[in-house]
Amino acid sequence: MTRPYSVARALEAREIDSFELALEKLTDFSDAELHQTIVTANTGGSNYRMAAGLCHAELNRRAQAATHDLAMKTTRWAASIGATAGIAGAIIGAILTAILAGS
Predict the structure, then answer these.
(1) Alpha carbon distance 25, 10 (integer Å)
(2) SS3 annotation, 16-84
(3) pTM surpassing 0.70?
(4) Which of 47, 68, 88, 101 lies 20 to 30 angstroms, CA to CA, from 3?
């Protein structure tokens, strides 16, 4: 029996008050444990299927968080490059204007 299965069993026995609290407990488990629970879900009853559902939800939440982090890093990187290019363009423009005005 995997640890995520224990969480599902506690949720079924009403030892855990809500689905959200059960999902919070899964944040401490490794990806390998979550995947193992999903793979072995067909070997048991409804608690195994519930554990697999909880594991799917947690893995999807982790994937969404990773996607959000990557999107934010990409956005910051693009903004930095854009600002640098704008400043460099302004400096080059000012230098060229001064050179052409002086000749």
Answers:
(1) 11
(2) CCCHHHHHHHHCCCCHHHHHHHHHHHHHCCHHHHHHHHHHHHHHHHHHHHHHHHHHHHHHHHHHHHHHH
(3) yes
(4) 68
Angle (deg, nearest 10), helices 46-102 and 3-12: 110
Q: Is the dihedral of CA 46, 51, 52, 53 positive or negative?
A: positive
What's the rounded Cα separation, in Å, for the pair 58 and 90? Answer: 48
Q: How does pLDDT run across 28-65, given as a tens digit for each residue?
A: 898 898 888 888 877 777 778 888 888 999 999 999 99
Question: What residue type is assigned to position 69 of the chain?
Answer: D
Tokens standing for residue 90: 């302004």
